[in-house]
Amino acid sequence: MKSLIVVFLASGAAAASAQSPAKPAAADAIWFNGPVVTIDDARPGAEAVAVKDGRIVQVGARDEVMRRKGAGTRMVDLKGATLLPGFVDPHGHVSMVGFQALSANLLPPPDGAGDSIESLQTTLADFRRQSLFASKFGLLFGFGYDDSQLKEQRHPTRDDLDKVASDIPVIAVHQSSHFGAFNSKALELVGVSAESKNPDGGVIRRKAGSQEPDGVLEENAFFEALVKLMPKLSEAEAIMMLVEGQKLYTSFGYTTIQDGRSDAGQIKIAQAAARQGKLVADIVAYPDILVPGTEAALRAPWFRPTPQVPVYTGHFRIGGVKLTLDGSPQGKTAWLSQPYFKPPPGKDASYAGYGVVKDEEVVSVVRKSLAHRWQLLTHANGDRAIDQLIASARTAEQAEPGIAVRMVLIHGQTLRKDQIPELKALKIIPSLFPMHTYYWGDWYRSSVLGPDRAPNISPTMWVRDAGMIFTTHHDAPVANPDSIRVLAATVNRTTRTGYVLGPDQRVDPLTALKAMTLWPAYQYFEEKSKGSITPGKLADFVVLSRNPMTVPRESLGDLKVLSTVKEGKTIYSRP
Fold first, then answer.
1. How many beta carbons lie within 10 A of that of residue 264, not counting itself?
2. Pick from 494, 227, 180: nearest CA to 331
């Protein structure tokens, strides 16, 4: 009888144990008391998220997740705010954002006061007194003027900038970063004169009726001149500039950041910053394949040429290479198949922009990227430049078949509907720029493309209708790395004047959020660790003031980033 009682008690204990599973391991932190937008189709929403060792360990109902609360668990009360995956930047230039932070702000409203030539002159003159570049290097830089938004509807000239200063070089960089205006001193130092010839893929603008430069340089003429004037910063100063760019990105919720079209020097600085523990977000560099020194850097032993297995060192890695095929549509240097609606000064009605790389060189670069397994990001704004990319990729793939590097089309502003099946066949991911609808949508309608072509810039819905993913970017410092404006523009496509440009190209908020999280994670070969709030992935989060899935669509632009979290650690908190 005693043995039967023992057996009975033992079986009862086993049953009780089966009904009450062991408590899971305690989490390092739990986020709760606010909606969780997971961007995970298997579980679209949740009430709480638990994190341990920088990774997500549980997502679900509050009561379930709270079972992971331990004595040392940090409890993060969202207080009704919304938790989302950290934003993944599919294209930007973080090193140049740092440069922008140390330059005079020439951006037009609402991001600056640059609405006239006079306002640019005043801003530059005032900034000289506080400029590190002016005090230490005798250079005055301004960034972000936009001729389309200036009262005069033109670029500033050397004569305009000579009124700011004639004793030191003054350089005003266009918002597109594809033009610059130089004063007479700057032109003298870079050797641009009436005798200077236009470089391949660039233009030196001239004064009317003469060969005398008017101070405005386009594309390769601008890039070559700017490189000659860039100050030689110390390592500490260059790292400080990079960190300033990183700060701006993280304030907008980005946990993965791109340094597109970087050079060997910027890569060395990013590596040094990584070694010193200065990087708090992941930075992925794509050096310019056409710049001398890039291929040597890619042959270095620390570079892993297989993006399929991304490995960061101190939050930094090289993701592949960047190629640029044309210029800026708002600046009217993008390479179109049809003429601009209104040609720029000095051009006739047939002007359609221009390419900056010869066909055979594009094919060579694409073949090389495939052969070496380098992911290739290609800047192509105009549809003619996109034609060049498609033809080159098709030729290169025939020579190097079966290699998947997830090539990316950057910008694709004038991507035609007939080109989308070609991109799909070649597995080229479109990274589009819907923010243009806000910043330059009115300019596209009235001057760049006209009312017939303008509505289909950054054609996100055409891409979705073809069964493809796309990513959306800000191209900072062309615009601030403002995630909220990216989201609002992708959903609403509202211009500065309130006009809806291309209503048929609008997408829903969930699609727009995927284009900022899960799909760019895929673009980076990091979809297994980023892009959604899913157990096993990194605890990369952004906290927004309200839920973008439930607020009225027209108020998406009013959302605020409250905090940014990288691998469970808060790297930004809104003051």
1. 18
2. 180
